[in-house]
């Protein structure tokens, strides 16, 4: 059993078997992370380039750690200190980097479809670390891993994604992956921030947290992009918090404790109250740990068998 | 014999035995630096993250070299290209990074106490690489190492720290460390830039270089923070140089040659004249070399025994 | 046989034997780049610092890859996130970094002569990765490698460099290297951008592409520095493209296909048409691949025998 594609561009279209293969492979790597020596040899002598055209702390560090722990050679590149400022196109950057005989490329870019585009023009394995509002597949996978770890299985699990669904690559990757795995997926947010066609995919749409909270096992709370405030689609921060901010008080109305997830970084007391983020029902830090294991699994599967 | 704490947050409160252990351990690493192959295996498979929220050339490179020469895996992070710009708090950053199963964190941050704070919220060993005006313990240690290397012992050695004592983490770490080791410590600077309570610690206070120069073995000349000029506490550059700039002419009045130290980077001909910085009595470049050895010693002691 | 100097500062003054040694050594490394495992041990335990005071994607990544594939420990430094912003001089930076017991320094800096200067003040091997408008020797070498790979030999080969010759370190390194190897070198560009004294060196000067195209085997098309537009020496982009832009239509007038080179990044359809850049006669991506091999060869020769 191996992955169908040489690249990980998104969770859309991936089969249940493929997703399960990644999640199962990540279990072994998750165990390695608890050992004193976390380094294993599978990517020795392979070169991975991290192309981050958008700034990111945790995703970049998480990938770098995963790469180094698999013994790969790592070269990182962030847009600020690069010839992108000289007007080079993504295609030229990609081709040039590939000409340097790179084995794998991890790319984050503001343009939806950029990872897909890259995979067409380079021979290296491409891993999408976020392409605009399109997909962020390793985030979707680590969220699924964390839910499976907590609940034992994804089949039938009721998960609600809360926030700006329209612009969220995290939401999209979660929706594709969770539906394929047989979970019941709902979303909750302001009408202006939820795409109309979502219903067709079998996703339940809510506009009131009070309505959805009693019906779910887990809430995946999206980060409010404060910089998107000026778009006019967003209510004020205060209003957002009042209606869509997830708080202890609101989740206390559920019949049983709800698991709280967040892709980070959290705007504390905006989309999620600080006490809830730090509570026993939060699995936010587990998501971060699992993220390294998921990325090791993806790098391993693409880098050694594909 | 091992260090009392799992972290190196400051030299305040460390015992003479602990400081001596670090200095003695650094001697072995200093020898390694003169070998053609400078790499040793003790931190193989361990991961160190360098969190630099303030820019720094030499301290960051010095730590990175020390880490790599101990065979650690290294991930570096500077604030500019990070989610700190997205408003993430230090606590969230720390917890997230720790959740990635990091073994050691080296942190530089503008807030005094930030390293201490980190050590409370993460499991990893924390090394303070400078927390605002509080402490910069590896700088203090490398200064002490350099003095011990030059003079054979610190006991009874007469060291004067020159400059803006109030805002200097370098001064504080030197004062704590040197006093514990039995050195005689004095400071010299403008009245506005020396804390009043310093006398209580057994530190002699001078406001005229002419007065202190005949009484000391070494001058540790602090960098003038040019950006602090606007605070109103500082005289003009010209006036500062005239009264507190250390020059060949001024030190020539001492009965015997005075050893010159500077934590770098030097404002040449402001706090220290260029000819003196490059003279035979300057140990400024030895400080830099010893800095790598001290950092290897600290990483080794915390990473393998604590 | 080994290189005469411990440093690679420029191709000016290097002998035919030395250039041939580098090119021949690069052949072995070029073969390694086609293997699944591209890592070899010669620089194990050696430390290389990349000092990039000007931003660069491909040159920095190319050097980093070359260094890692030779198993060196790598520390990279770009000016933005450094104490250069604190006003430190190049000399102090260099001495400090050297005091950290670095084995090799790769430096890019806007000041012509900066690499030469560094080689005088540090013990480490210095490799010039571009010093202002002076030289970029590894670029010259990789261009020569690519031509030799394509044509079998450089002796008698007719190469024209097109563009702003006056300000181009790429042009200078190519001219020195190619003339030494016995190639026939010409240049073509606006009168304002070609140094008058070039004729003395045995370089033919042209101001019309139509005139030179029928007489050459290869065109090395320089990047137009868009930021130099405001200098007044440059025609408008449109005019530049019309007269000096290399296009399929223009090269089609040659009696036989002309090999197209470009040091990158390309301003597509300014100095070089996109279709030609991507055509079968373009060796631009081979240049990039060969660049890694050339840098491995230079690092190997300086780091192990000099």
Q: What portion of residues of chain A belong to β-strands?
A: 5-15%
The helix content of chain A, as a percent range, equals 25-40%
Q: Name the strands of the widest sheet of chain A in spatial order.
A: 7-6-5-8-9
The largest pleated sheet of chain A is described as:
5 strands, parallel
Order of helices and strands of chain A: HEHEHEHEHEHEEHEHHEHH
Per CATH, the class of the largest domain in chain A reads Alpha Beta
Name the structural class of chain A: alpha/beta
Low-confidence stretches of chain A: none
What's the total number of strands of chain A?
9
CATH homologous superfamily assignment of the largest domain in chain A: Aspartate/ornithine carbamoyltransferase
Descriptive overview:
The structure is a homotrimer of 306-residue chains. With 306 residues, chain A is of the alpha/beta class. Chain A has 2 domains: 16-134 and 288-305, Aspartate/ornithine carbamoyltransferase (Rossmann fold), CATH 3.40.50; 137-285, Rossmann fold (3-Layer(aba) Sandwich). Helices cover 38% and strands 15% of the residues of chain A. In chain A, the strands form 2 sheets. A 5-stranded parallel β-sheet of chain A has the order 7-6-5-8-9. Chain A is globular. The N and C termini of chain A lie close together (11 Å). Chains in contact: A-B, A-C, B-C. The A-B interface holds A 33-34, 36-39, 52, 55-58, 61-62, 64-65, 68-69, 78, 80-81, 226, 264-268, 285-286, 288-289, 291-292 and B 44-47, 49, 73, 75, 77, 80-89, 92-93, 95-97, 99-102.
């Amino acid at each position: 059993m191996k992955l169908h594609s040489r690249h990980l561009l998104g969770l859309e279209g991936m089969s249940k078997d493929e997703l399960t293969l990644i999640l199962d492979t990540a279990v072994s790597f998750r165990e390695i992370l608890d050992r004193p020596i976390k380094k294993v040899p599978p990517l020795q002598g392979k070169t991975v380039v991290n192309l981050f055209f958008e700034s990111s702390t945790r995703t970049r560090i998480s990938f770098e750690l995963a790469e180094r722990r698999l013994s790969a050679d790592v070269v990182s590149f962030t847009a600020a200190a690069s010839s992108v400022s000289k007007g080079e196109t993504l295609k030229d950057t990609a081709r040039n980097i590939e000409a340097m005989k790179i084995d794998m490329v991890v790319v984050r870019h503001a343009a939806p479809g950029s990872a897909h585009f890259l995979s067409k023009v380079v021979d290296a394995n491409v891993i999408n670390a976020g392409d605009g509002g399109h997909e962020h597949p390793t985030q979707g996978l680590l969220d699924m891993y964390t839910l499976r770890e907590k609940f034992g299985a994804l089949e039938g699990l009721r998960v609600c994604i809360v926030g700006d669904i329209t612009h969220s690559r995290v939401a999209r990757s979660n929706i594709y992956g969770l539906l394929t795995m047989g979970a019941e997926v709902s979303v909750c947010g302001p009408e202006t921030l939820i795409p109309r066609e979502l219903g067709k995919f079998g996703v339940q749409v809510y506009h009131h947290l009070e309505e959805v909270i009693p019906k779910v096992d887990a809430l995946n709370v999206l980060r409010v992009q404060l910089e998107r405030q000026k778009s006019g689609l967003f209510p004020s921060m205060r209003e957002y918090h009042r209606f869509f901010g997830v708080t202890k008080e609101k989740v206390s109305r559920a019949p049983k404790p709800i698991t709280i997830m967040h892709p980070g970084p959290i705007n504390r007391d905006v989309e999620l109250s600080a006490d809830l983020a730090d509570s026993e029902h939060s699995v936010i830090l587990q998501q971060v740990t699992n993220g390294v294991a998921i990325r090791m699994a993806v790098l391993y599967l693409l880098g050694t068998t594909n």
